Fold this sequence. Notes:
The structure holds 2 protein chains of 2 kinds.
Chain A: H1 17-27, H2 31-38, E1 53-60, E2 70-78, E3 83-84, E4 89-92, H3 101-107, H4 111-115, H5 124-131, E5 135-138, H6 141-156, E6 164-166, H7 167-175, H8 182-186, H9 196-202, H10 213-231
Parallel strand pairs in A: 1-5, 5-6
Antiparallel strand pairs in A: 1-2, 2-4
Helix pairs in contact in A: 1-2, 9-10
Chain B: H1 6-12, H2 23-32, E1 34-38, E2 43-45, E3 53-59, E4 62-65, E5 71-75, E6 80-81, H3 83-87, E7 96-98, E8 102-108, H4 109-118, H5 120-145, E9 162-164, H6 169-179, E10 183-187, E11 200-205, H7 206-214, E12 235-236, H8 241-251, E13 255-260, E14 263-269, H9 270-274, H10 279-288, H11 294-313, H12 318-344, E15 351-356, E16 372-376, H13 382-402, E17 420-422, H14 423-435, H15 439-445, E18 451-456, H16 458-472, H17 476-486, E19 511-512, H18 513-531, H19 539-549, H20 556-580, E20 588-589, H21 596-619
Parallel strand pairs in B: 9-10, 12-13, 16-17
Antiparallel strand pairs in B: 1-8, 2-7, 3-6, 3-8, 4-5, 4-7, 10-11, 13-14, 15-16, 15-18, 19-20
GO cellular component, one term (chain A): cytosol
Pfam family, one (chain A): RNase_T
InterPro entries (chain A): DnaQ (IPR006054), Ribonucl_H (IPR013520), RNaseH-like_sf (IPR012337), RNaseH_sf (IPR036397)
Amino acid sequence: xxxxxxxxxxxxxxxxxxxxxxxxxxxxxxxxxxxxxxxxxxxxxxxxxxxxxxxxxxxxxxxxxxxxxxxxxxxxxxxxxxxxxxxxxxxxxxxxxxxxxxxxxxxxxxxxxxxxxxxxxxxxxxxxxxxxxxxxxxxxxxxxxxxxxxxxxxxxxxxxxxxxxxxxxxxxxxxxxxxxxxxxxxxxxxxxxxxxxxxxxxxxxxxxxxxxxxxxxxxxxxxxxxxxxxxxxxxxxxxxxxx
Amino acid sequence: xxxxxxxxxxxxxxxxxxxxxxxxxxxxxxxxxxxxxxxxxxxxxxxxxxxxxxxxxxxxxxxxxxxxxxxxxxxxxxxxxxxxxxxxxxxxxxxxxxxxxxxxxxxxxxxxxxxxxxxxxxxxxxxxxxxxxxxxxxxxxxxxxxxxxxxxxxxxxxxxxxxxxxxxxxxxxxxxxxxxxxxxxxxxxxxxxxxxxxxxxxxxxxxxxxxxxxxxxxxxxxxxxxxxxxxxxxxxxxxxxxxxxxxxxxxxxxxxxxxxxxxxxxxxxxxxxxxxxxxxxxxxxxxxxxxxxxxxxxxxxxxxxxxxxxxxxxxxxxxxxxxxxxxxxxxxxxxxxxxxxxxxxxxxxxxxxxxxxxxxxxxxxxxxxxxxxxxxxxxxxxxxxxxxxxxxxxxxxxxxxxxxxxxxxxxxxxxxxxxxxxxxxxxxxxxxxxxxxxxxxxxxxxxxxxxxxxxxxxxxxxxxxxxxxxxxxxxxxxxxxxxxxxxxxxxxxxxxxxxxxxxxxxxxxxxxxxxxxxxxxxxxxxxxxxxxxxxxxxxxxxxxxxxxxxxxxxxxxxxxxxxxxxxxxxxxxxxxxxxxxxxxxxxxxxxxxxxxxxxxxxxxxxxxxxxxxxxxxxxxxxxxx
Lengths: 243, 625
């Protein structure tokens, strides 16, 4: 993922997801989206131990959702107790634009990989059915949210939005809340990194080679399990985590 | 679609047993995996929980515990755990706790079973791995306790807590909570004339206090005698843990008193035993009692050889192997008798089925025939009851034969009416042998001097043994006759140049290690043990008693033990090799197949036997007083 300097303050205002989803359900036009919004959502006060999650990760051609596109999608369903690799899915999709050399180096997906890959429109159905009924978990929500919304707008003429748990934001809440101390400033101590690999390291999770959408999704799922084990409880309502 | 979990597959491929598997299988295993994170200090598995996955430690550290809470093992990255529970009955046998933040990969049961079926080395790995560790654990325990940890007396950690039968239930409860025990023995006040000790009348457990006192609203002053379980089931301190386990499971008791020479020395609980289970032979023994027909038993008996070979490969010593196989053999007998009784109906008079020879000595090996007999109740009437016991014996004997315990060539079997006698007749018979011995008369009956009750009124076997002990001890004529018999079979010692071969035509270039080694050793040890009235039956245990009694010159006892162990182990290994090579195992070894080391040590062992026979001849000369 290529997006570490892109944190914005989009999260400052809490969204009323119950109302938002209700509105979406009533207003979306495209039948695929209608079906998606009508499947119902877990209630905000559900405890995390009762929630089905699905970790999601995209590799993209670049960082700008207006110009760049999705190259691969990885997702892994999980619960607080088990991450189920057996039901993991991975797609490579054709971004319909040339791949920058720099992004190939990062995600390892090459021209020849995408030549025969389907367009994103072909994975909409299976993707939505994998997400249906689950709470989506990502590391750095902006990328997945913006690229997904944009990809849907392009194919269906309508965007998509739903609550997501962002493991990076959960790290930021812990390590970036408040101002850096004077001593940190004097000592030129860098702020704690909230990148996926560094965050994982703090929970003693093993090092995984990143930038494979499936591996990153799995890594994100493990990170959320660890974060809940350390900083929350199985009874924490999901509304405390999702944004 | 590219769905392989690269990270997981790469990780798995670094560690046994996955490192030896085809790449595509490892990739498939990787996709089946489930993952879970455990914060330091949290439990991963609790004892007795259901378990449906094999766990692989991906990162962090995990400790495994024995059921009693002691640390069993600390494992690290790449190690697997949980397989014992998966292999047994989907119950966690070793609680596991994360001692660091830990990530676990789980292989679901279905995939585990597939790997187990398809890949022999996987099956070996998950089975052997645990056993290797178990063995390490047992052997480190053994260092302090020598080789007999499998005896129930080793489980006893404290003296028994006892009260008098006239004490009140409140007093019992007070003593129990003071001593923090969950059971207490109720003792009679008058010493037993036989043992000189006060007898155990019964037992009271926590549960009895709840169910029989509190729930019933009995007054605190109620004498314990009124609410105790009259406890007739006890274990001898020499009983094996297998037997303790069986006794506890089959009689649905949770606490069994252990007696040494009639005196209680402790109480063994089911939980004490769980940690000592030796999984294989125990597994087999438990299955024996689940079989519903002779045919089922015959099928199951195929596993006896595997069990034997595994024990040999695990470096079990001859004593452990001999006792495990004896327990297995005894269990076959017991189950056959139960099945026969189901078919023939209740026995018309009580009886005790006896095992004789190697089974009674806990020295049974894989090539063995059946030696058995019956003690009948004194109310036995031949004309009325004979048919029943004839039929019963025949069923057992035929069943044993079908299960691989061949008919006794000397016809020492319960099917022979001569070896079905009432207790009185048996005592008369032994009295005769002992009082009017001739080497001739004892030659065939030698085998009766190792006997053990396996079913029915087994205490009669104890009575008979006590009778024999009292009668035989210091009876010089009898001991001399026994000694003479013990000298009949000589070690193959023409061999300052080389071994002397058997001349029976069939194994011309071989030595029968049983006939020329272990049997004469067992014989001579028996003579000494009769002389000192040792009640032990196992040759090694008899030797302990003999050494203690001081009748042997210094150093000879330990030498005999080494000789017995060495010859037995050569014989055992030889049989295991035969089985593994698909040959019919026997007792004959070809010296050219021995290593120099074995050859040299065998010669030493035979020399020790020969010297011991000379001493025996000298010690029990008929005209010595």
